[in-house]
């Protein structure tokens, strides 16, 4: 398990992002559909974490010295599954069982899936769990870091702020929250449902060190996540993202939250993704 | 029957936990500002006492994170806050993951007395019992609190321990050793016509009083202290009830889903017999009063147990 401590050369990330988005589209094009928009917005965040930041071994997902990642926005499960498979936690072929009867690959993450630390799906649980992991690391005297990926709509759950207050009070600087700030929830803009801004100021007021980045700029996300934390303050990375990123037809639209694509739509979406990747490569 | 004064179960639990923390590095005491630990000297284990503030659901999640990291967290709150406010966190973070979190729930039943119905907990046994993987324990006196809590630390999975608030009388000194998961047989009469099954300090004492009263009227009575509500000791229950004509349950809990329901479920499937339940009435109790006074007002005392047994046996008054 190699610790990553400096700038990372990872030219494969863009190609991996394309593959992950293809997996996401295929799963969302399956019989049960899937949470497309909030999974597409997460891709770079999860890839940077797994490829560049986390000390983790896909062959031994529960190794005691691992860093911990919790996907608190459990509806990003398809992105998580795709990244875990790409990282070698389980065979990529298994993604085809997503949501088929009897499969562990449910629409919200289950701990039976290798690499899934804790169940999620009911919103507002992950940050409390993260406080527990960070507290245990402190008691154990280890340098384990814990990353909790939250949705922005999820921040409307009061328990998130209970946990934020606790982490700030306890000064848990090994804890990092990453907010997938795509700005949308099922019914529309987050700000129309319950105002989150000024979001960075909210985290700061709770004793955190907020950092704002473009959540699709892998370099910026990497820099934010590899930066040394401020002593005694947990870090909140607010990653500005686009819901449905990669599919112009649904980008930035709340209707991408949960999608049942037919076969034709799915194939068209896959073609769009590949065309984009070809343009980017030129 | 003589009853002696005793420290409260929650104080016995608190002192025991502080003692156990010194020898068991896994233990972490997670508090939601209950006040139970005010002035307690944790000594060298002070780093393993964490007050996370008045935030019960957050506390349950923190405990799950600690437990997944190899610790055995003991969370502290009142019974009703554990069972209702924090329920989703108990279900998703603790029961679903089967993590070894110990939930020390004070103010069980009507123990909060004058604090009113927001602090009463007449639903917790039903709520906790319905969750897969959860063990549910109700010690009947301070001594049992010590023995059952110590045993609970070794359970593979989460445990809910219902504690009271003020002192309650000890069970008679001749009660047999209490073992987690096994009914404590407080009185055994071979071929007894009536079997009384109770949990919690006042209901168990009321059952013993009722048994003495019934015996004086010539009725043979077996009494089980069913301190472990889940998993229920099916063997002991079926064996005691097999030749009985009536089984009467008594508990400090509403009628739906508690000990009486658990007993009725088991006996309906394994040894059908008439089951009559003495429980708190299906209403809230927004009045001041001591635990025992409120419990009698709610419908649970020895006279009701006697009356239920006699009704079940077809006795005429």
Characterization of the model:
The complex is a heterodimer of chains A (282) and B (317). By secondary structure, chain A is an alpha/beta fold. Chain A has one domain: Rossmann fold (3-Layer(aba) Sandwich), CATH 3.40.50. Helix content of chain A is 39%, strand content 12%. Chain A is built from ten helices and seven strands. A five-stranded parallel β-sheet of chain A has the order 1-2-3-7-6, sandwiched between helices. In chain A, a hairpin with a 2-residue loop joins strand 4 and strand 5. In chain A, helix 1 crosses helix 4, helix 1 runs antiparallel to helix 10 and helix 3 runs parallel beside helix 4. The longest helix of chain A has 19 residues. Chain A is globular and about 50 Å long. The N terminus of chain A is likely disordered. Chain B is α/β, with parallel strands linked by helices and 317 residues long. Chain B folds into two domains: 154 residues, Rossmann fold (3-Layer(aba) Sandwich); 129 residues, 3-Layer(aba) Sandwich (Rossmann fold). In chain B, 37% of the residues lie in helices and 19% in strands. In chain B, helix 1 packs parallel to helix 6 and helix 8 crosses helix 9. The longest helix of chain B is centred in the middle third of the chain and has 16 residues. The mean pLDDT of chain B is 96. The chains are: A alpha/beta (282), B alpha/beta (317).
């Amino acid at each position: 398990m190699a610790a990553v401590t400096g700038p990372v050369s990872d030219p494969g990330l863009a190609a991996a992002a394309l593959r992950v988005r293809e997996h996401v589209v295929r799963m969302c094009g399956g019989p049960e559909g899937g949470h497309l928009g909030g999974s597409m917005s997460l891709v770079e965040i999860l890839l940077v974490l797994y490829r560049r930041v986390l000390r983790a071994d896909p062959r031994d997902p529960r190794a005691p010295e691992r860093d911990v990642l919790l996907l608190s926005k459990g509806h990003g499960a398809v992105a998580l599954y795709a990244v875990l498979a790409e990282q070698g936690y389980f065979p990529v072929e298994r993604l085809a069982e997503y949501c088929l009867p009897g499969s562990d690959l449910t629409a919200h993450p289950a701990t039976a899936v290798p690499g899934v630390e804790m169940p999620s799906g009911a919103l507002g649980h992950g940050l409390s769990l993260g406080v527990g992991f960070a507290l245990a690391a402190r008691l154990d005297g280890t340098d384990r870091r814990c990353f909790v990926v939250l949705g922005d709509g999820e921040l409307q759950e009061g328990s998130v702020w209970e946990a934020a207050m606790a982490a700030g009070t306890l000064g848990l600087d090994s804890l990092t929250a990453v907010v997938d700030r795509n700005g949308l929830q099922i019914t529309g803009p987050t700000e129309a449902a319950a105002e989150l801004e000024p979001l960075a100021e909210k985290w700061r007021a709770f004793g955190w060190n907020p950092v704002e980045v473009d959540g699709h700029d892998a370099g910026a996300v990497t820099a934010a996540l590899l930066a040394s934390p401020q002593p005694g303050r947990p870090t909140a990375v607010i990653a500005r993202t686009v819901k449905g990123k990669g599919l112009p037809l649904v980008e930035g639209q709340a209707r991408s939250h949960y999608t049942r694509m037919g076969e034709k739509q799915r194939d068209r979406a896959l073609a769009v993704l590949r065309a984009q990747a070809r343009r980017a490569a030129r | 029957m003589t009853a002696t004064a005793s420290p409260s179960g929650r104080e016995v639990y608190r002192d025991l936990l502080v003692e156990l923390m010194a020898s068991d590095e896994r233990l972490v005491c997670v508090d939601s500002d209950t006040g139970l630990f005010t002035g307690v000297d944790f000594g060298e284990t002070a780093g393993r006492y964490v007050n996370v503030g008045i935030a019960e659901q957050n506390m349950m999640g923190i405990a799950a994170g600690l437990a997944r990291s190899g610790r055995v967290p003991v969370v502290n709150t009142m019974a009703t806050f554990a069972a209702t406010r924090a329920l989703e966190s108990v279900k998703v973070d603790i029961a679903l993951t089967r993590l070894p979190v110990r939930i020390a729930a004070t103010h069980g039943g009507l123990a909060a007395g004058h604090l009113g119905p927001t602090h009463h907990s007449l639903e917790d046994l039903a709520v906790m019992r319905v969750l897969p993987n959860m063990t549910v324990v109700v010690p009947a006196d301070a001594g049992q609190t010590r023995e059952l809590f110590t045993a609970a630390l070794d359970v593979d999975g989460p445990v809910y321990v219902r504690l009271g608030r003020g002192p309650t009388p000890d069970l008679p000194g001749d009660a047999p050793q209490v073992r987690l998961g096994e009914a404590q047989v407080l009185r055994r009469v071979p071929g007894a016509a009536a079997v009384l099954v109770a949990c919690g300090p006042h209901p168990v004492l009321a059952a013993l009083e009722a048994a003495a009263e019934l015996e004086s009227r010539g009725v043979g009575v077996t009494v089980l202290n069913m301190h472990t509500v889940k998993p229920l000791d099916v063997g002991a229950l079926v064996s005691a009830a097999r030749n009985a004509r009536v089984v009467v349950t008594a508990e400090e809990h509403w009628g739906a889903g508690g000990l009486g329901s658990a007993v009725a479920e088991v006996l309906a499937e394994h040894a059908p017999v008439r089951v009559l339940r003495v429980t708190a009435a299906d209403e809230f109790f927004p009045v001041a009063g001591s635990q025992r006074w409120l419990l009698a007002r709610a419908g649970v005392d020895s006279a009701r147990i006697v009356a239920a047994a006699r009704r079940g046996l077809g006795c005429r008054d």
